[in-house]
Amino acid sequence: MLMRIVLPVVVLVAIVLPLATSGWDAFLTLVWAKALPVLGIILLLQAGQVSFGHAMFFATGAYTAGFVIRAIPGGEIVIALAAAIGASVVAGLLVGVFVVRYRYIFFAMFNLAFSMVFYSLLEKFIHITGGSDGLSIPRPEILGQAMERSEYEFVLYYLALALLVICLYGVHRFLDSPLGHTLKAIKTNETRIEYLGLSPRRVLLIAYIISAFLAGLGGALVAVFQGIATPEYAYWVRSGEFVFVAILGGTGNVFGALAGSFVYEYIRVTATAYVGDTWQLTLGLVLLVIILFAPSGLVGVLNDIRGYLGKGRREPTPSGGKQPSGKTEKQRGEEQ
Amino acid sequence: MTALISAKDLAISFGGVIAAEGVSLDVFEDDHLAIIGPNGAGKTTFLNICTGYLKPSAGSVTFQGRSILGSSPRAITRMGIARAFQIPQLFTEQTVLENMLIAAASQARRFAPFTPLMQIPERKEAEHILELVGCDDVSDRPASELPEGKRKLVDIALALALKPKVLLMDEPTSGVASSEKFDIMDTLIGALREQQVTSVFVEHDMEMVSRYANRVAVWNAGHIQSQGTPEDVLQDPEVVRTVIGV
Ligand SMILES: Nc1ncnc2c1ncn2[C@@H]1O[C@H](COP(=O)(O)OP(=O)(O)OP(=O)(O)O)[C@@H](O)[C@H]1O
Ligand SMILES: [Mg+2]
Known about the structure:
The complex is a heterodimer.
Chain A: H1 2-20, H2 25-45, H3 55-71, H4 77-99, H5 104-124, H6 126-129, E1 135-136, H7 149-176, H8 178-185, H9 190-194, H10 200-226, E2 228-229, H11 236-249, H12 255-275, H13 279-293, H14 297-309
Antiparallel strand pairs in A: 1-2
Chain B: E1 3-14, E2 17-28, E3 32-36, H1 43-50, E4 58-63, E5 66-67, H2 73-79, E6 81-84, H3 96-107, H4 123-132, H5 148-160, E7 166-170, H6 178-194, E8 198-202, H7 206-212, E9 215-220, E10 223-228, H8 230-235, H9 237-244
Parallel strand pairs in B: 3-8, 3-9, 6-7, 7-8
Antiparallel strand pairs in B: 1-2, 1-4, 4-5, 9-10
Helix pairs in contact in B: 3-4, 3-5
The structure holds adenosine-5'-triphosphate and magnesium ion.
């Protein structure tokens, strides 16, 4: 139902919106782009693993796009995005090979450690990265067309939207495939996976690389939109934000990425306008309410409402959808 | 007759507890070998060694003439030895059918990223196996909701879905209601015979042993005390005293 009805409706509204009104597109472009790394986090959560370091891939994508655009005259956005994807996939493979040996707190912390190393590299190598001032990125061409700012942002809006929709659908399908179900099985019994002739580590690595790809693409889009990449893109606060938004949106469904990203950005923008620097307070309260009263996130609330209305069949919630991610009852494979 | 699995002089101990010492045992093609013995005798440990989960401190294990010492459970499973556990090892958050289809997809190496699990061609076969072990009625239930007996049977079904050459079962029907236990084992062993799957099963119920095993090995404190046909072994006064009597 989410995929068949809600997504097409949302996409339709998103397509029409910039044509009908103005003032939303800049905000929404960021929503689309930032939903991508959150989608990556949700993917890993299917295996019960939380990464507190995915900002490193977000920054990998951002800086790679920046370098490419600065290096080629004119700077083609398609090449920049392709390079960003390539770089984050490679980075995902390199870091992934190491971190997929670990679980739970160790998995989370090793990711954090890698990202902090990467963060300081970005800060220290001033002559390459521009240090803490960041790397300014000139406006790239799109398919060989140099554009005015408003025109560029208009196209970027649709580009980000299209990429997000493709990724949401792709991850949704992946999770429904045998490999996706094996990924969910990592959460409950790795012993059995081994005894089915499969490697849990390899399955997790595949998901990890996909999640790095998603984070990298998101980072590249944000960077080319904002015209800058800074070390802050790799900072742990940013990694934490991805996890925060995933829990806010709901970790049981790819849709949580979009819902969470939208609400998060909305609160950030409006709360900043009203309460200034204390907007985090508002966010904190919202998250508290979500965890206490709707542990399956915004998408979970939507599902519950549908349940109340009693209309039609109830889709089975994907594993973990009904519980806050930290609290899932663990039945580790015990050998006997 | 050639031995399918051949274990020689296995030894392993855990901090003073000897779980195997000088254990030699051959499993022949089309055998249905029962392993019996008191608690803590080393029966499960033997299965752990044969599947690469534990490495013996001495001895050798071969499968179809090749040494499998040092191979991982994953590699050994791929060679054709599947296992059902004493404590069922299921994917508890997924339905019984999903559990089965993950196993079937693994067996068929079906990893296309966009084919829905529910639509893999192996589904019919997987459902048939569930029927065989009397679990087709729970195929839509999450594995965590099943009673113990059903969980044991689904665990066996997962191993069967791998189309193994040898099936190792650790007390396959403990927890299964005695009213249906023999019915299920009749169909299960029947299917194994038909598909020429060799089986090894650890068992405490002597009626099960005499009904389904063609050979019996008696474990006692890390040793094989005796082995032979069920008729001979179950009459042996020594075996009666140490194993059956208690
Ligand atoms: N991984 C392990 N670590 C420590 N001790 C172990 C381990 N595995 C088995 N043991 C010990 O080795 C002995 C044999 O255990 P095993 O599980 O093989 O017995 P069993 O014959 O299967 O018994 P049961 O009928 O109770 O299942 C026991 O004393 C057990 O406590
Ligand atoms: Mg045992």
